Amino acid sequence: MNPLRPLLLRSATVLVALLCLGGLRAQDAQLTQFYAAAPHLNPAFAGGTLENRVAFHYRNQWPGLPGRFVSYGASYDVFIPKINSGIGVIFSSDEAGTGALGSSSFAFQYSYEVPINDKLSFRPGLQLGWSSRGLLNWQDLVFGDQINRGVTDGGASASLEGLANFQLVRNFFDVAAGGVLYGKKFWLGVSRRHLNTPSESLTDATTAPVPIWFSTHGGLRIPIEGGPTGIDQDVLIAAGYRTQGQFDQMDFGISIDSPFLTYGVSYRQILMKQAPDGAPNHDAVSLLLGLTEENFRIGYSYDITVSTLGW
Q1: What is the pTM of this model?
Q2: What are the start-end ranges of the H helices in 158-302?
């Protein structure tokens, strides 16, 4: 037995405890196929395959509205057997609303695989990154006192002119951590972002800590030999819960994964702890379709809004 294994297991236990404790307090960008962008979900997934992995994602949320949200990202990760570790890099960017507010981040990831037995392993992960958030097209913002300057108090300057006192972009160091317990046919993980609670305020006069993002997620892969078509397939069941600030969300999906085609459906529920009484919390039903090949796969999902936003 590796003499370091007991120490690593104790360290992993402490890591999970730290992740699950503590108060949870803007939201980070979300993805419908959260499990398909594994390194973005949890740094413990860095090196989650035995080969080099490159992934890209793009999301255009509510494209029919003028205040849509556009997110995209990329990642690269690899497992290094000699040191029993995974390393990776991720990049993400998103624009919220009419392009007035944007954010981007770049981070390095490290994970270490701790074999528990022949069928079960635990992998803790750490992520260190650099992020920026700020106003993109601030000249396109329109404030009330620009429309009716006569109502400004004491003849004060318009709010737009006051932006000269703001930093249009705030850069900050960001820390995330996670852990995943997995076997050949299942995985269960937790992760937290913004552990150092950096400030994203655009002025030095105030502080605005980024709320800690917490997620717990899991999946089960059920192989079906032959199946109705005579082709071996896998049924993939995935679920995730995440919370940040005043909001929390639940995702649940099921898909069929064959050697050539992936298809499925998922459901998303926005729980909103502080939503007005009686407000519906159903968000969207999503349809998934993808093409698979031995070393390549591409997927597309479409959200059907079932909340009042789609009425």
Answers
A1: 0.78
A2: 159-162
- Residues whose CB is less than 8 angstroms from the CB of residue 124 and which lie 6 or more positions away in sequence, other chains included: 11, 12, 15, 16, 44, 111, 112, 114, 177, 178, 179
Burial-class residue 107 by CB neighbours within 10 Å (0-12, 13-18, 19+): buried
45 closest CA partner among 195, 218, 244: 218
Cα 271 from Cα 267, distance rounded (Å)? 13
The per-residue pLDDT for range 44-62, each reduced to its tens digit, is 999 988 789 999 999 887 7
Contact 189, 40 (CB under 8 A): no
Reduce the DSSP state of residue 10 to 3 states and report it: helix
Q: Where in the chain does DSSP place strands (E)?
A: 53-61, 69-80, 85-96, 101-112, 114-115, 121-135, 169-182, 186-193, 213-224, 233-244, 247-257, 261-270, 282-293, 296-305
CB-based contact 289:263 (threshold 8 Å): yes
C-alpha to C-alpha distances, 198 to 133, 170, 270, nearest whole angstrom: 11, 10, 25
pLDDT digit string, tens, across residues 67-120: 668 889 999 999 999 999 999 999 999 887 655 678 899 999 999 999 999 889
d(CA 145, CA 183): 60
Report yes or no: 265 and 253 within 8 Å, Cβ to Cβ: yes
User: Strand ranges (DSSP E) for 34-100?
Assistant: 53-61, 69-80, 85-96
Measuring CA to CA, which residue among 99, 109, 16, 103 is closest to residue 55? 109
- Which residues on neighbouring strands pair with residue 112, listed in sequence order? 85
Q: Which amino acid is at 299?
A: G
The two tokens of residue 167 are: 């930093």
Number of Cβ atoms within 10 Å of the Cβ of 183: 15
